Structure formats: C-alpha cells, structure tokens
Amino acid sequence: MASLPARLKIQCIVLVTLWIGSSSIADTSTSSDLGELLVKSSNQQREFDFFMLSFLWPGTACLSSDGECCPSNACCRRSSALTEFTIHGLWPDYNDGTWPACCPGKRFNIKKISTLLSTMKKYWPSYNCESSSNCHNGTGLFWEHEWEKHGPCSFPVIRDEYDYFRTVLNLYFKYNVTEVLREAGYVASNCEKYPLGGIVSAIEKAYHATPALACSGDAVEELRLCFSKDFKFRDCGVEIPPESSCPEYVSLPKFISSGLGIKEAKALKLET
Ligand code: 5GP
What we know:
The chain is of the alpha+beta class and 272 residues long. Helices cover 26% and strands 17% of the residues.
C-alpha cells in the first residue's frame, strides 16, 4: 500500500546558495554524488576548508520516508512527536563546493560512544528502516554512515569517533535553530507558507551568517549552518545541487507519525 508520505514525495531539493558543480582533485575519484571526492589513502587527503552542520526537518523527512515501521525509524514514534530539527551530520567541505568523503580512518564502533547513545537516539535519529551505506562496501547504522563518510575527513580538527559525535551534539544544543525560527514566527504547519528569505534572515539575525536550505518540493528538508575550523560562524556560500533548491515560499510540515492509520494521518494533514 502506498503510504500518504510516499504519495506526497516530491523529489526536488532546493537551495539558497549557488551550486558550483563538481571539480576534481588529483588522485581522488568522484562518487555518484556530484561534489563528493572519495579519498582512498591518507596522502590524497587535502585538508578541508570549513564545516557544514546539517539539520533535518522531521515533518519533511517523514514525507520522504518509505513509510515502513521498525524500531529505528523515527517516523514511527508515537509517544513523542518530533517537533524540532534533528541532526543529519557534520561535514568537512571545500570552498569550491566539493567535499572529501570516506577518508582512511577507524571504522565505526558503537562501544566508543555508549555514553552518548541515549541522546543520539533522541536527537540524531534515522528516518527509515533501511541500513545506510558505510565506506567499506557494506551497510550499517545511519551514525556509522555519517562517521565513516565525514568523520575521518574532519581530521585534524576532529580527532576520533567520540570527538565527532560529542562535537556535533554540543553544536546542536548550543545553536537551537528550531527556537530561532519559532521566535520569528516560523512554526510547523500544514497550511502556512513562509517566505524563504524570512527564514534565512531569522538565522542571519541570530548567528550573523547565511545558512543553506534544501527542500523537497516546497517543504524545507534541511537547514545547514557553516563554521570555520575553529567553529566560528561563516556563510555557507557554496552550493547544493539545483534539484535541491527551495522555492520563494516554503513550508515546515508537521510531523505525522507513520504509526498512525491513514485516516488519522490524512485528518492531521488537513488540520490547520
Ligand atoms: P549523507 O547522508 O550521505 O551524509 O548526505 C546526503 C546528501 O547530502 C548527499 O547526497 C549530498 O547531496 C549532501 N551532502 C553530503 N555530504 C555533504 C557535504 O559534505 N557537503 C555538502 N555540501 N553536501 C553534502
């Protein structure tokens, strides 16, 4: 059965900044994702220029989810509705719009972050049941994907797996983008459309730096903040692919648990 979220899926990510496109670095190869440079050995690893911290909007992430339920899929949470941006990842990027990926480093080991897990389950959830790809031709947890793809490329600023997850959680709690938007009047709604420029301005006013936004149709899917290597705010500047750009007016869909029946979900979708 096609779920409501699946039917509403509109593959069109939009964004605020200009996509520069892919470029190549000697001795690296690009993956299928334009801009991604797979780094195969440590002597190919050129140090990154800045960090991009990416947050996901649950209401949109669940519209794009396959609607399947399992314990790891946050879209199926019934007890606590997801009302805030959650964490996608911290990404080391180059100023030219490309980024290194899968740099050599230690493989993900969940035991290294056991003290962070309860917080991560809440604020860094996965939005589907499928495993994510890791950097070793296999699959694993969403956290494994983020650490292996981006963590070792963040060296020497980020030293190890624990440092990666701890740093991201600290940044997430320090910069509450949901609260910044709420204070400016941008709250979850299934009928309101908000000017993209207003959302960008609210973030700029709070942090004195321009974020990047990615949409799925007109729904905000990701909000990204950028930092220098010493974690001072900077403009994101470089871009996301054209299919990810946001229109002039965007929405912040409410979170609807996939654990709900279709009738219930439809009723909520119509709610003002
Ligand atoms: P992932 O979940 O694989 O980390 O990222 C999902 C999507 O976000 C990618 O397909 C790509 O479009 C974008 N993305 C991933 N990593 C980076 C990055 O380091 N920099 C930028 N600008 N975009 C990224």
